[in-house]
Amino acid sequence: MILARLDVDGFRNLEGAADFSPSLNIFYGDNAQGKTNWLEAVYVLGTTKSFRTSQLRDCISFDAARSLITGLTERESISKQLQTLISPSSKELYANGKRETLSRYLGNLTVFSLSLEGMEVIRGDASNRRRLIDRGIVALSPAYLDRLAEYNRVVKQKNKLLVTAQESGSPARFYSQIEVWNEQLISVASEVHTARSSYVQMAEAQLERENHGRAIFGAESVSIGYRSCLEGKGDLSRYSELLHERLALRMPAEIAAGHCLIGPHRDDIELLADGREVARFGSAGQQRSTLFLLVLAQISIYTSTYEERPVLLIDDIDAELDRGRIEALISELEGRAQTFVSTSRRAIANRYRDRARVLLVERGRIAKDTPAFYETAAPATRQALEVQTLDAYDEEEAPALE
Amino acid sequence: MLDYAEPVTRLIDELKKLPGIGHKSAQRLAFYLLRSGRNEAERLIDSIREVKDKIILCSTCNNFTDVDPCRFCAGAGRDHRIILVVEEPLNLVTIEKTREYKGLYHVLHGALSPIRGIGPEELKIKGLLERLRSSEVEEVILATNPNTEGEATANYLSRLLKPLGLKITRIAMGVPVGSDLEYADEVTMHKALTNRHEI
Fold it and tell me: Complex ipTM, two decimals?
């Protein structure tokens, strides 16, 4: 599936529409013109979340009451219109003009992203890593989202009950009630555990296969493993029984703590570069490579499951990678994902203008766009445009990248 | 300054407290009532007052009723060996509409939800236990909602009732009748497959 066109209204500083190439698209322009905002709009359209803010209403432009992102996707020869409408108090999702629920909407456009914020996955706390894995699973099976929501709801209910039990002074009175919630927890927790550990296994198998990726990033070997909080406590292959035992054993401790101490919400994902924990022992470069390889592995899992390409966003590609690596990465992605990158480097826009659609962003608008722009234009206009567009990119001699 | 005369504002505010009524609907209802004849408004006032005066909870099953015990509990044609447990009186109506169920009911008036401060004491569980101890009941059907809270409630009740040696059943969950399989979500489908039966 590819994103063919994007129309924005009231989203940050963006205005107008953009048409995209099925392979590589480069948002190019000076700083603070809105390149990242375009990437963000694609991300929001696909995931209904932003990679920059947890408050989606922050994306509404200052002079608008709401923002509407409209995308046109193409899957084989079928096109579909997707819309995300953000207002200060709500978020509405539409497919072909019909309102959709989140889990039904999400399968329409699968977006992965690589950005500086993404480094939290490596360096931040475990919740970032769980989220990355969960998003990967949702891309494969949107219904997983409902199971996660259900799990979180049970945890919330049980947390409240644990606090009540603790404050009551006679916690024993609450044991039978807590057991009831434990049972609810166990049934959903097993599903989450199974989904996550099998996804991580697929990712690990994919990472072993990513020889090209390794060559690009120079990391010798990256591996991933799911670390359940029950690790070392017994036989994980009979997860439900083990969780049941542990929950019974730890009930007094959970009451004392006033919140759930065991379950998938306490699990972590271990990332190793050359056999060592990358967050603690890896260099900045190794950490970045690990994240890139991980996202590439997620793309491969998606592609091999659905036999179609997802969308990949790379914000500020030149800040992340040097010229050689950009080149290697772009060739690597060819045919594997519809890629959108942003850059302020004229040299990069220039270098790829034959293979990519370059979209010049000025004050939120796509000011110029090449080459598809003149593919469809009449010969005379085409000539005029050619001069114009090439001028725009050739003014500056491409500086050598480090 | 208020947008409406003070009594109108008060009416709109009261209407807005009703479930499913937002500001616009409340405004529309209020202006409808303003324009309607005095008789119509009086009838509405009277009928609200009447339910408040006359409707009580059945001392046996906790359903809304104007006579105690209610028509179901006192009904001669009902099977006194089965009790079906629901969360809300409205759920009872849905089941009664099938005209299939001839047993008795028990309304809990809620489901377990620690977040909302609802524990077993807040539900009408004590009365249910008393009923089971002192009657000829053989089966209890747990028909709480198929969501997290309803499941927890059913779970809690089944643990509580097991020692009484009764038959305890849970309503089946699966694909909705009269619709297409393609519209069933994964969880429902999963439940339907797990609970499949031989034909």
Answer: 0.75
